[in-house]
Structure formats: structure tokens, C-alpha cells
Amino acid sequence: MSEVIVAHRDGAVQVLSFNNPATRNALTPEVYSALSAAFEQAQRDPDVGAILLTGAGGVFCSGGDLRRLAQRRAMTPPERRAGIEGLHGLIRAIRDCGKPVIAAVEGSAAGAGLSIALACDLLVAARNASFSVAYVKVGLSPDGGATAFLSEFVSRQVLTELCLTGKPVTGERMHALGVVNRLAAPGSALAEAIVMARTLASGPERAIARIKSLCRHAGENTLDAQLDLEARNMVDSLGDDEAAEGIEAFFGKRSADFSALRRASAVLSQ
């Protein structure tokens, strides 16, 4: 049996691919487990500066495996909840990862596949990619944070329409809504995302983690709470070797070498 998640490195970028093209990369508990473990490993690896998530066979992810989901009818509610928590654990792993996570979407991202794409920090999509909150078409309601993520970009009315109809939305439309960061020609989303990931992977690891935390809380915090969070993060940053290297490089008119600091920090933590 082939691996459900295939991993390979592109310099400091860890590329993770859904790998079941026969089912359009449908999700299973094995996928949740393997992908969560891959994120944990990448988070610990000092040579990884960014993570890129994509799908094999020209499709990102078609969502949950309906054959398996149909079997949950015979389960008790706690058993069903346990199955859902496999997906939600993965969503939290993506959200809590201190390193930048980029989704590269070709083909379709539907159902929980859409949720996973939206959980990533940045999203690159082919112009003709298809995004769909497809649950209603099979009598289900959304999970994986789909409604939470989409509500950050669209009005309640648009969110409700997307969820009640399950109507596919193109990459171009998602870009216009602000959901997609960059559009790519069909077939080149991965290449475009790699370029972005390489740039981010060379940045200051701890500062990036702080920035991710600030961005995550900005929409929910009051101004005073966000100012306090910014102050605490800046205090830590000002005392960090990353800032010393960055400022020294600026005045020395050279490129900062944050990768060396990342490796040194990993050695000290062992």
C-alpha cells in the first residue's frame, strides 16, 4: 500500500502531499494521523523553515471518504465525535505550527479538504481551482473549521449561501474575496507556492512564530489586548539573537543569516 502522505524536501521547505489520487485524495483517519505526525516532525526539524501542503494527481483534496463516513451511522455519538476529532486535531496542528504553512491548490478542495486549505497561513491556487463547502450535498454539516475560516472573509449571507448550496467557487473568485493570496496558471500552483515558501523559510524562525500568533489573535482581541500582546512579543524579539543578526546585517548592507541561528538554537535545546 502506498503512503497516504508523501514528503520531500526542497531546500528548507518541507513539501507534504496527499497521495491517493484514485479517491481524489479523500481523507481518512490514516491521513489525519500521518499528516499530524509530519507536521510535528517538521516543527522539530531545525532545517525546515516552511511547510507546503499539496495534493497528488492534480487535485488538492476531495474531503472525507464517504464510504467510511457512511459507516459512522452505526456508531454511538461519542464514537462519531472521536472520528471528527482526528480532523480537528489536524486543523489545530496546522494552526499551532510555528512555521509558515502554505497550501498549493490545483483541481478541487472540497468539504474537509477546503477546511484544511483554509487552515493554512497562506494559500496559492490555480485560477481554475474549485473550492466547495460540499457537505450539504450529502446531507452533512461543515466541520474542520470551514465556517470559522470563511467567516473571516465573507458576510454572513455569502457564508450561508456557500454552505447551503455547496456551490463550487473558482480560484479567481476566492482571490477576489481575499481568501487566496496568489493565483497561478493551471498546473503551476505548486511551483508558485515553492517560490513563496523558499522566501519565508529563510526568515527568522522565532520572529515568524510571534508574527503568526499576532495575526491569529488580531481579529478576536480588543485593541488594548492586541497592544499588550504586541508589546510582549516585541520585548522578546528585542532580546533575541535574531534581532541582533537582522539589525547588524541591515547596517552591514548584507543579507541576514537566520538559518545559522536556527541550527544553533536546536543544538542548545538538545
From TrEMBL:
CDD domains: crotonase-like
Gene Ontology terms, MF aspect: catalytic activity
Top-level taxon of origin: Bacteria
Family annotation (Pfam families): ECH_1
InterPro entries reported in the protein's UniProt record: ClpP/crotonase-like_dom_sf, Enoyl-CoA_hyd/isom_CS, Enoyl-CoA_hydra/iso, Enoyl-CoA_hydra_C
Gene3D superfamilies with a match to the protein in the record: 2-enoyl-CoA Hydratase, Chain A, domain 1, Lyase 2-enoyl-coa Hydratase, Chain A, domain 2
Similarity annotation: Belongs to the enoyl-CoA hydratase/isomerase family.
Name of the protein described by the UniProt record: Enoyl-CoA hydratase
Source organism of the structure: Caballeronia catudaia
